[in-house]
Design goal:
Layout lengths: L17 H9 L3 H10 L6 H8 L3 H13 L3 E6 L2 E6 L3 H15 L26
Antiparallel strand pairs: 1-2
Helix pairs in contact: 3-4
Length: 130
């Protein structure tokens, strides 16, 4: 990291964290993360994503549009088709870091009463009794 780059954690109190919040919010949906993971292996059309992820075409299109609007995905038109790819390889570094953090914490975030999920994938709203 050079002197012009700042670590998010080293921002002074009151610094504008809105861009970081927007980034994490853009990745806060399982379908969007699945799309990013798939695009990590190469470009794909919406039809390819629908077939591989088992999601509805309208769902995939909406999530790809969200990722595109956030600047994380770009489309390359070819004839009547659009091939989507990731705009920045650093996104893969972010996901790899997230996986490392999850492994280091034993996936403790999955127990979070606000954002965690149980084994059925439903949000947890009840306090965990041990």
């Amino acid at each position: 990291m050079n002197s012009t780059e700042r670590c998010l954690a080293s921002n002074p109190p009151g610094a504008n964290l809105d861009p970081a919040v927007a980034l994490f919010h853009s990745l806060s949906d399982a379908a969007r993360v699945a799309i990013v993971q798939r695009l990590a292996s190469g470009e794909a059309r919406v039809a390819d994503l629908v077939a591989e992820l088992g999601l509805a075409q309208s769902t995939v299109s909406a999530h790809v549009a969200c990722l595109r609007d956030c600047g994380l995905v770009v489309g390359r038109p070819q004839g009547r088709q659009v091939f989507y790819s990731l705009t920045r390889p650093e996104l893969l570094d972010l996901l790899a870091s997230a996986e490392t953090l999850l492994a280091a914490t034993g996936n403790a975030v999955s127990l979070c009463p606000n954002y965690g999920t149980d084994t059925t994938g439903e949000p947890q709203n009840e306090e965990i009794v041990r």
